[in-house]
Amino acid sequence: MKHLSILAEEDDDPMLSAVNLVDVFLVLVVALLTAVALQQQAAADENVTIIKRPGEPDMEIVVREKGQEVRFKGNGGSSEGQGVRAGVAYKLKDGNIIYVPEAGASQP
């Protein structure tokens, strides 16, 4: 009687399945790295304002617009000057800010 072998001799090696898993993980890692690189590139094109150390005397504001970065640094003191009240700003629950000018305030 003839013996039927379902598995060929090269299929008996357990390292082949480990090599296949390594290949799958390499493809997954390359896909994730590509996604991260594309996300960072898209983030670089956005207009972003970052406030570092808010409320501290050495507070810094970083504004990124159209790939250019501008930094504003505090001098440790509060600003003083002459001026008049121009209006009132209200912050809504959704984060929007509405400015209501004072009656009689001059518009620029």
From TrEMBL:
Keywords, alphabetical: Membrane, Transmembrane, Transmembrane helix
Protein's name in the database: DUF2149 domain-containing protein
Pfam families: DUF2149
Domain of life (superkingdom): Bacteria
Membrane spanning residue stretches: 15-38
Stored InterPro entries: DUF2149 (IPR018676)
Species classification: Bacteria, Pseudomonadati, Pseudomonadota, Betaproteobacteria, Burkholderiales
